[in-house]
Amino acid sequence: MEFLEVGYNPWLVAMSLVIALVAGATGLTLTKDLSKKSVTQRKLAVALASVALGGGIWSMHFLAMLGLQMPILFYYDAAVTLVSALIAILMVALALVLLHFTRRSNRIIVAAGAIVGLGILAMHYVGMAGMQLCQPVYTTLGVFASSVLAVVLCVLAFSVAYQTRSTRNIVIGTLCFGCAVVAVHFLAMAGTNFIALPETDELGPLISNETLALGVILSSFVIFGTFLWVGSTYLIPPQYEPVPAGVAAIPDVGPIDDVQAVKPRPSPDFVSIPCERDGSKVFISAADVAFVRADGHYSQVYTMKDRYFCVWPITKAATKLLPAGYMQVHRSYLVNPSMVATFERTKDKGRLTFSGSNLPPVPVSRSRLKDAQTAFC
Fold this sequence. Notes:
Blueprint: E1 7-8, H1 10-30, H2 39-66, E2 68-69, E3 75-77, H3 78-101, H4 106-129, E4 131-132, E5 134-138, H5 140-163, H6 167-190, E6 192-196, E7 206-207, H7 209-231, E8 240-242, E9 262-264, E10 272-277, E11 280-285, E12 289-295, E13 298-303, E14 307-310, H8 314-321, E15 327-330, E16 333-335, E17 340-346, E18 349-354, E19 362-364, H9 369-376
Antiparallel strand pairs: 1-2, 3-4, 3-7, 5-6, 8-9, 10-11, 10-14, 12-13, 12-16, 13-14, 15-16, 17-18, 18-19
Helix pairs in contact: 1-2, 1-6, 1-7, 2-3, 2-4, 2-7, 3-4, 4-5, 4-6, 5-6
């Protein structure tokens, strides 16, 4: 058995990495702050994110394959190539449904990352099966190593991006996702050899590299366009928005009449909470806080991993955090909606739970039930 000599176009390899990173940034950004949106909006966002992430996996793979250089002409089976794209999109969709329509926990995050990793693998090997006039020959080590790397890197990407839904974590998660897609592809290719075949054995019509390039260009155009549309939100400064009517229930905030007052609404990323721990003063970003609980004339600040003492009374915390997007679900509790995993109603009360398994649930008072249902159901 004589193997073909293989080389790569370095420019197309570099572009494949860019595509993977842009797709990751687009998909992870589309799914940010979904707890604040309606079920229909969440479904639409998950669908778009699935196409962005799954389409990015497919585009990265075939852009890299366009850079594959061999001494023979080879083609792709159009039907198998289409199936490989559908596999990537559907596997990503399954992972995102688990993350956004079930109670999010560490186990769910790990499962979602593993599903996406397996989706990358399935897409890769199904896409390779569509090659005509040459046949890939795999090594056991190459398949095993790429499988482990796919699952580990995707679990890492989703663990970072979903433990705290901050811009910083989304950027880090994007880097992990892009590296996962590219590393899996080229590690798998490093363990793959090719032999020439005398005839084709296609299921559907054949497509050449030139035709495939058009499909990759089109999908990349859509991904880049969506990225620009989504990414532009990071460039928009804090806007003036109506203050929620619920603010009127907090004594130190002041009444709100029927024509709601207009005040600046800063992002939680730019609000810091002064805290104390072990005798030292620290400042915690409001974006990293799950909820704030009243503690007499002071308050307790809960992140996903730690609890801090804060000198602010709950009323002062409300004046700082409600305009930044927090919700008051109880007279003693302020919550960060982006951290909430589930809302459960029990008769005339309710409770909120968080993705961190060590965090206690937060009660929702009767007067706040309607607002909680609107925000989290």
